[in-house]
Amino acid sequence: MAAPFLSIQHVKKSFGDNTVVQDFNLDVEPGEFVSFLGPSGCGKTTVLRMVAGFEEPTAGKIFIAGKDVTNLKPNQRNIGMVFQAYALFPNLTVAQNIAFGLKVAGASKADQDKRVAEMLNIIKLPQLGDRYPYQLSGGQQQRVALARALAPSPKLLLLDEPLSALDAKVRVSLRDEIRSIQKRLGITTIFVTHDQEEALSISDRIVVMYGGVAEQVATPFEIYNRPSTKFVANFVGTLNVLEGTVVDPALGKVRVNNDEIAVKHSLNGAKRGDAVSLALRPEAMALGDYSGHDTELHGKITDVHFLGSVIRVRVNLGAETIALDTFNNSRTPPPTIGDSTKVTFASNDVLVLH
Amino acid sequence: MRKGGAWWAWLTFAIGATYFLVPLIATLEFSMRQRNNPVFSLFGQGYSFGVFNNVFGDPRFQQTFTYSVLAAIFTILLGVLIVVPTAYWVRLRMPYLRPVIEFVTLLPLVIPAIVIVFGYIRMYGSNSMLPFLGTTGGTNVLLVIGYAVLSLPYMYRAVDTGLRTVDVPTLTEAAQILGAGWTTIIARVILPNVLIAVLSGAFLTFAIVIGEFTMASLLNRPAFGPYMQNLGANRAYEPAALAIIAFALTWGCMAMIQFLSRYAPRSANRPN
């Protein structure tokens, strides 16, 4: 395994009595794309700003390429950063914006021009070099901001919610473009977002943060399918939480309403009669029998939402109502509200929340 | 309703314009009454531009006007050097100090120039620790400093208003992360984006310095203000002509501010 390119060690940040980041640890491999995901105020931007050098950690160390940068100023760290508010210099043209870092570094005019042309091609805006920022759309401005950040060939790229100010369509296309450019250049990248879909779609790994703490650091697949805490399970994707009572801890048997189900995951030392929270993703369940589904619950359909490719059905199990997704099939009519139904799923898909 | 509103607006404008223009026209009319070689006559009264020729041809006019223009240029430079970094830093790092800074910059409007200049004479006399008044050059420097103080309320407000249109913290961080130091950030990022505001402040400063009398007179410097006063005490028509020239200069400055502000959108940060 390669040495970590970015290493954040036991970093803590307090503003007065308010601790916003607590004992944060993370190693990022060279060329890796890591997303910080979490709700507002969880500390994700503060960690990013500490890596950039805009905030000084109250405790802990930050290393980039093996060098301790904890006390270095932002302009000494060789980092590229894209801001949520674009932050293009309004008095400079697109080309001058992209060349800014190179000019500051003392690159020759010929080198600046060459690099600017290269970057304009990478962001697919070769014809807009002479425009001013106010003459560009939001998406174009953010692409220019990306080009400006990458032009001086930084060691690390930081993206602070770069897509938040854009409309939905541009957000998706720019997201894919950012990932493709990042892969092509192989630059180690930290991406801050509160949008789980964004994080899941482009990251190599995701750090889910809550209350200044990294709740889970894992691949998008693991974060979604094997959330390690109740917060991660609830925050990432839609989740049905079922409250049950342990019947047989050895066999993983839990009673949920009037049904008994077997859970494959560990019950974390719960004893007979203990309450336990189980969770299921809507897409892990089906109405009626389904291949590979070995567990069933019974209830009544209370709501049907047609969402295009997917139909979301709500089923009342007695004390709880769960939501499940079925694919839309034009040859089959959607389920009917009020019908009694059997909900099936694989016992392996039942998550035990900590 | 709408038409009635427009009528009232025009009436108000006409009253205001009359209030300002009648004394000016009267002054202009009086200044042109000099009877030598009238160029044209109106209602039996002969008029000429001779008085303006006298004023512009007077070597003391040229000397004092040049002196005041130079003093204004140095005052503007000093004002920009003091105000831009201060307003920038207050906006970036010490927003809690804004009320204090605003109060300080308003003081020159409250404290009369004569009080300030007497303070200077006591503080910087030839026997003091900083004997600015011991030499002509030192007195000139002190005068420029005094002018910078007098123009502080206008310069600070103009720059601060300009900074309000720019996302100062984010642009600063964007420049910092690209490797820029503080001098580069102020010179290449902040100043160009508040240039129109700085120019507004500069023209206001110019207008103040050109007509300033108290400081220049008490520091005994050959500035335009004392020259105007001196001329007013000894001549009849020339002071009226000078008043018109001074107004033309001030209005010219205002027109320049208006003209330059048309170019503001090019450099202003527009939210998407």
Explained architecture:
The complex is a heterodimer of chains A (354) and B (272). Chain A is of the alpha+beta class and 354 residues long. Chain A has two domains: 6-234, P-loop containing nucleotide triphosphate hydrolases (Rossmann fold, 3-Layer(aba) Sandwich); 238-352, OB fold (Dihydrolipoamide Acetyltransferase, E2P) (Beta Barrel), CATH 2.40.50. Chain A has helices at residues 44-52, 94-104, 109-122, 138-150, 168-185, 196-202, 220-225, 230-235; strands at 6-15, 18-28, 33-37, 59-64, 67-68, 79-82, 156-160, 188-193, 205-210, 213-218, 240-248, 253-256, 259-262, 275-280, 285-287, 295-306, 310-316, 321-327, 340-345, 351-352. In chain A, the strands form four sheets. Chain A has a six-stranded mixed beta sheet, sandwiched between helices. Chain A is elongated and about 75 Å long. Chain A starts with 5 loop residues before the first strand and ends with a strand. With 272 residues, chain B is mainly α. Chain B has a single domain (60-265), classed as MetI-like fold (Orthogonal Bundle), CATH 1.10.3720. In chain B, helix 11 (224-234) packs antiparallel against helix 12. The two termini of chain B are 36 Å apart. Classes of the chains: A alpha+beta (354), B mainly alpha (272).
Report the CATH architecture of the largest domain in chain A. Answer: 3-Layer(aba) Sandwich
> Mean pLDDT across all residues of chain A, rounded?
91
Which regions of chain A are unreliable across 5 or more consecutive residues at pLDDT < 50? none
User: What is the element string of chain A, with H for helices and E for strands?
Assistant: EEEHEEEHHHEHEHEEHHEEEEEEEEEE
Number of contiguous helices of chain A: 8
How many E-type strands of chain A?
A: 20
The general outline of chain A is: elongated
DSSP strand content of chain A? 25-35%
The unreliable regions of chain B are 267-272
Radius of gyration of chain B: 23 Å
- The number of E-state strands of chain B comes to 2
| Element pattern of chain B in H and E | HEEHHHHHHHHHHHH
For CATH, the homologous superfamily of chain B is named as MetI-like
Count of helical stretches of chain B: 13
The N- to C-terminal Cα distance of chain A equals 31 Å
Protein name (chain B): ABC transporter permease
Membrane topology (chain B): Multi-pass membrane protein
Domain ABC transmembrane type-1 (chain B): 61-255
Keywords (chain B): Cell inner membrane, Cell membrane, Membrane, Transmembrane, Transmembrane helix, Transport
